[in-house]
Every structure is written in C-alpha cells, then in structure tokens.
Amino acid sequence: MVEFEKNKIVDILLIEDNPGDVRLTIEALKDCKIMNNLDVVENGLEAMKYLRNEEEYKDKQLPDLILLDLNIPKINGYEVLAEIKNDPRLKIIPVVILISSSSVEDILSTYELHVNCFITKPFDIEQFIKIVQYVGDFWFNIVKLPQKAEKRLFNSLHNK
Predict the structure, then answer these.
(1) What is the dihedral of CA 85, 91, 97, 101, to 10 degrees?
(2) pTM of the model
(3) What's the rounded Cα separation, in Å, for the pair 144 and 102?
(4) DSSP output for 19-30
(5) 144: exposed, middle or buried (Cβ count in 10 Å: 0-12, 13-18, 19+)
(6) Taking 90 as the threshold, does the pLDDT of residue 157 lie above it?
(7) Which residue in 7, 9, 91, 140 has the most C-beta neighbors within 10 A?
(8) Which SS3 state, helix, strand or coil, does residue 113 take?
(9) Adjacent-strand bridge partners of 99
(10) Are the beta carbons of 134 and 2 closer than 8 angstroms?
(11) Are 151 and 158 in contact (CB under 8 A)?
(12) Using CA atoms, how far apart are residues 34 and 123, in angstroms rounded to an integer?
C-alpha cells in the first residue's frame, strides 16, 4: 500500500445503518493509519441534513469523501446519491457505494446517478477491512481531490 501523507486529516462521512459495518469501517481506517474525522449517520434523512448543514449539523464542514450504503432507512441511498449529484455544492464530493449487493441493476443505476465508485462488501471481515483500506489509499493518496480551500471558494461563489 501507498504510505499516507503525514499530518493530512481527511473528513469522511459514512452513511450506514449497520452497526457492525460501522465498527469495521472505523477499525479499517485506524489500521491504515489515515488521520481522519469520521462522522456517521444511519439514514438518508440525517445524511442530507448533515450535507446541508441543517439542525445539529450546522457547524459541520463538507466531507472529502462519502461512503454510502444504498439500503438505508428514511431516504434510500439512491435518493441520497441523486440529491448529492444534483446539488452544485455537493456534487464535487466523491461518493463510494459500499453494499452487500453485486446486482447489475444496482451497479448500473448508481453509475447512471454519477456515483464515483461501486464496491460490493465482502462477507469476510478481513477482506472488508482491506477493501476500506484500499478505498482510503486510492481516494487520499492516488486521486487528486479538491482541497478544502477550493471547496470553500466554490461554496462562496455558489452561495451568492
């Protein structure tokens, strides 16, 4: 694996209602030594409040990456993805689908909604941890993401 940049702190939003998968994701991110601020919401309604800085999330900054399960309550993952990708302020945030399904319909539907990556969760715990580590390595060391300053500039220009 590529070594993560020293002192680089990334903000990750995990939208997941399964407590076991949340715990595994937290452990995987610790094991890959990525310095992060991980926030977790367990349904689509809370995810959209978070991303729109509403109610208890009014002071949250936009995440650098969103990990999204499609099978979440209140507003499903498809609707959350569509809202993110249709919002000029949010659409620059990479969204990675992490789901147990490998259905062709799920894959095609999410890519039609402009998901950045679709990953089927493995059933093996060690494999799941490796996948999350690979996701972190890819998105934070290999891919060039918008910097927080660029996001702030983008937000200020589009909020006028």
Answers:
(1) 10
(2) 0.82
(3) 28
(4) HHHHHHHHHHHH
(5) exposed
(6) no
(7) 140
(8) coil
(9) 120
(10) no
(11) no
(12) 23
- Our separate counts of H helices and E strands in the chain read 6, 5
pLDDT in tens, 7-21: 567 888 999 999 988
Q: Which residue has the tokens 């690979």?
A: 134
Which residue's structure tokens are 């991980």? 38
Phi and psi based region of residue 151 (left: phi greater than 0; alpha: psi -120 to 50; beta: remaining) = alpha
Q: Whole-angstrom Cα distance, residue 106 to residue 81?
A: 12
pLDDT at 132: 81
Stretch 121-135: mean pLDDT: 80
Q: Which tokens sit at 146? A: 């918008």
Domains of the chain: 9-155 (3.40.50.2300)
Tell me how many degrees the CA angle 11-112-71 measures, rounded to the nearest 5.
60
* Tokens 């949340």 found at: 22
Torsion sign (Cα): 128, 110, 49, 142: positive
Given a contact cutoff of 8 angstroms between Cβ atoms, the answer to whether 24 and 129 are in contact is yes
Extract the tokens encoding 6. 């020293």
